[in-house]
Specification:
alpha/beta; Rossmann fold; 2 domains; 8 strands; binds adenosine-5'-diphosphate; binds magnesium ion
Length: about 425
């Protein structure tokens, strides 16, 4: 009799364990970015604004050094202040610096490699480009000292995108890093990054540049009849117009260097050592853009290494069992008096039973809304997953991710070992 009872209890226990998602995770390994991190030398993290690109780029760097020895560099673009502080990049700017081993030890994070970080500095990036491509010292100094230099280069649309890739090219070429991960700048359209090198090259052949470099006097003469130029001359002053003309005349001297370089940068994007990681949340607009981006990468023969579905709701919220349980709980709570369920929970939590009853009822009756969102997210995830060989999901982690511990939690999901995340949250 006792043996029968023990058997029954054991069967019950087994059934309970079976229904736990953790159990499923053990049988079917979760998708992991480990193979990607081990096989590529350059990774570009792209996606629409606010989806978690900067955070994922940093966490990918950490994941890489957790997994393997070697030197990994993360080039960030716009880290949130607290994350920047945690990575120590506030005062370092363009120059890569290594996160000290002690910082990982303090955070209780074990690593095997070296993690270096740098922040994209567009001013320094432009200076470097001018130094490299100026045909002689006089041109170089004249451009750098032109009073409009900073202003004009700063206004080059998408120059951030271009410079991020320029630096990727440079940093990879130094041969100092086994892997360079580049966070990409916020832009309205994630695709602009792919076109940035071509746009830079096209600018040199453009009519705009030709017009801008027509000698100043003859331009005035040519357009003298047009009121706009007369007004511009009067309002802005001929000095200003001359500075602009001078700048672009000098700029044009660097044409061949710039074009050659833009082509090299473009080639980098289709290099087999490069892969894109597309980050997206599963809301309508970012997911739509991520799809478009992944499809465009494919068309251009650029590798979609993986898709990261970030800040997702747990998929099992959408199960029929969960809905049935919520309905049950809704019916059992919320009427006059305190329900048995609330009483039982309050005994464990030590809270006021009537309050617990209200909370349970609210949660249970609103559960369907959440389940509906989770179901929609699951559909979008499926659509995205069709576009890449690897898709990983990262849940909405508690609080902002602003330190090595937060990054380590995220890294666990990227590596497909979420159990390891438990201790990091
Ligand atoms: N999985 C996540 N869980 C919780 N917060 C996240 C997660 N991923 C990113 N965040 C937070 O979202 C915000 C935006 O992330 P960020 O990486 O700066 O986005 P992007 O670079 O795409 O603009 C940050 O405050 C970050 O800490
Ligand atoms: Mg960012």
């Amino acid at each position: 009799m006792a043996a029968k009872k023990a058997k029954k209890t054991a069967a019950k226990k087994a059934a309970a364990t079976r229904s736990k998602p953790r159990r499923q995770a053990q049988t079917a390994p979760l998708p992991s970015l480990d193979p990607l991190l081990a096989s590529r030398e350059m990774i570009l993290v792209a996606g629409s604004g606010g989806v978690g690109k900067t955070t994922v780029a940093a966490a990918l760097g950490l994941a890489a050094v957790q997994r393997q020895p070697g030197r990994v560099l993360v080039l960030t673009v716009d880290p949130a202040r607290r994350l920047a502080t945690a990575l120590g990049i506030e005062s370092f700017g363009n120059t890569p610096h290594r996160i000290p081993t002690e910082a990982f030890e303090e955070a209780g994070v074990t690593i095997r490699g070296e993690l270096h970080v740098a922040m994209l500095d567009t001013k320094a990036g432009w200076d470097e480009l001018i130094r490299r491509h100026a045909p002689d010292a006089a041109t170089r100094e004249a451009v750098l000292e032109n009073p409009l230099y900073e202003n004009i280069t700063g206004r080059f649309v998408h120059s951030h995108d271009y410079l991020a890739m320029e630096q990727l090219h440079d940093l990879h070429a130094t041969g100092e890093y086994d892997l360079v991960i580049v966070d990409t700048p916020p832009s309205r359209n994630a695709l602009t990054i792919l076109d940035a090198p071509r746009r830079m090259a096209d600018f040199f052949g453009s009519r705009l540049l030709r017009w801008l470099t027509v000698p100043y006097r003859s331009r005035l003469f040519t357009f003298a009849s047009k009121p706009f130029y007369q007004v511009a001359d009067r309002v802005l002053g001929s000095r200003f117009l001359q500075d602009i003309a001078d700048f672009f005349v000098l700029f044009q001297k660097m044409e061949s260097g710039f074009i050659k370089r833009a082509k090299e940068v473009e080639a980098l994007l289709v290099d087999p050592r490069t892969a894109f990681v597309v980050v997206s949340t599963l809301e309508t607009a970012p997911a739509h853009e991520a799809r478009f981006l992944a499809e465009s990468l494919e068309e251009r023969k650029m590798a979609v290494g993986a898709i990261v579905a970030n800040r997702v709701l747990p998929a099992d919220l959408a199960s029929t069992e969960a809905s049935a349980a919520a309905r049950d709980l809704g019916e059992r709570t919320g009427s006059d008096g305190v329900s048995d369920v609330a009483d039982a929970v309050a005994t464990v939590t030590g809270d006021d039973a009537a309050t617990v009853d209200r909370v349970l009822h609210q949660m249970a009756t609103r559960f369907d809304d959440l389940a509906m969102v989770a179901a929609r997210e699951a559909d979008r995830r499926k659509e995205l997953a069709a576009l890449a060989t690897t898709t990983v999901s990262v849940p909405w982690l508690h609080g902002d991710i602003h330190d090595l511990n937060g990054l380590a939690s995220l890294a666990c999901y990227l590596r497909g070992v979420p159990d390891g995340a438990d201790s990091k949250q």
